Amino acid sequence: MSSVLFSSLVATSRRRLLSVSGFQTTPRSYWAQTHQHQRISCTSTQPATMQFSSRQALSTSSSSSSSSSSSSPNSAASARLRNTGGLRRLPVVKSPTELLDKAKKTPKRTVKNDMTIKNIRTRARKHGAESLNSLTQALCVPLRDIVDGYRREFRRLHPFEQVVADLTVRARQRKDGLTLEKVLLEIHEARKIILEAGKEWVYRAKHAETAKEATEATKEGTDRLLELYKEFAFEPVASMVDLQRSLRSAPAVQLDTPAVVLVGAPNVGKSSIVRYISSATPEINNYPFTTRGMTLGHVEVFWSDEDQIARAVVPDEKRKAKDVSPDVMTGKYAFSQLCQVMDSPGVLVRPEGEERNEMEELTLAAMKHLPTAVMYVMDLSGQAGDKCSSVHDQLQLRKEIRSRFPRRPWIDVVSKVDLGIVDGAIDELENILDGSPYIRLSIHEGTGIDELRAEVLRMLGEVRVVLDAMAAVDDRSARAT
Question: What pTM was computed for the model?
């Protein structure tokens, strides 16, 4: 397919998308997120970035931002919009043993016996009260930071990462019955118990009748506070460490590049398509709630100007998103982007109200919250090999997903056509599509490959157009405020 045709496709897409009624004033009707996109110029050495959040995330955090700091809600929201990979920024929770050992050492390090006080009882009272208060704070502050930090950062998560976090917690709950909120509540309650006990022992030391009683109260109070920590805080903190390990291991989502996500039933050939039209050795994004990952391939797309795609190549394995192509550096092309082609786990037709598994939820979340176009892949040969991947189910699933995402850039692909097609399947498909185009594809025979690549570029161009239009509207809104 020639570069002239690619350019024409994208230019047409830009004109069509920007002429949609109401788009200038309500761009989020296309996706329910805010995007900010900055392209690489021919002299830039920095990667493209995009600011991205949901309205819900903005509204949820506005009150906490105003109450927790002196900065304005707008500045707090702006800082959050520039960040991705929120699950990896969750507070680091140290092991309960490490926290306990550090707390034990704190009073000796921070509290000194005030020898300027001549009265022995008064000196013992002061030293005991300060030591117990220091220990109480050393035990309670980390517990408070765990609870506040996780609740704050969860409100700031990108919607896709909120889904990933929820799925991770749900998988953990099935394993041992624990939920994140339950663990955080137990840590919060443990802190309250330790804090109240600490206040009581500080009072006893401060009002001891003799120096000996003050010293004894200090020792007894220290032992009791450490016992309370072991009894009430040790187990939930240990659970939090385990849960944290799973949450922080989830891949960071890339919000700064257009993507095409391949969707369909299990075993219809999505992974083969990703490997054939993009990176030869795609990444595998593994999620903590499943042994199945999401396959990511890359295509580097070069633009000659704002509207025209000049060419697309499969990037070298060592190519990084932050790297600037030499052709861009020399001015041959205006800019380039390392776009993603993503295989998603199979989705099944389910009765209304039936709960989907974690991987199906992940697929739908990627379509809902990430800047993606959709390639719906079908195997109509009758040989998909999964009882849930019958021709009827695949076509029914196509109708359901398309009705859920009616405005996404979209292309239908019938894969494995070299294996034949079940009688009547094409008629049924064309009836569903109602005149919309589709591609017959055979990776084995090379059928439809050029047409598919052209469609992928067209959709990537459409996604970029929408992101740019949203960014322009957001810039105007920011200036207005």
Answer: 0.68
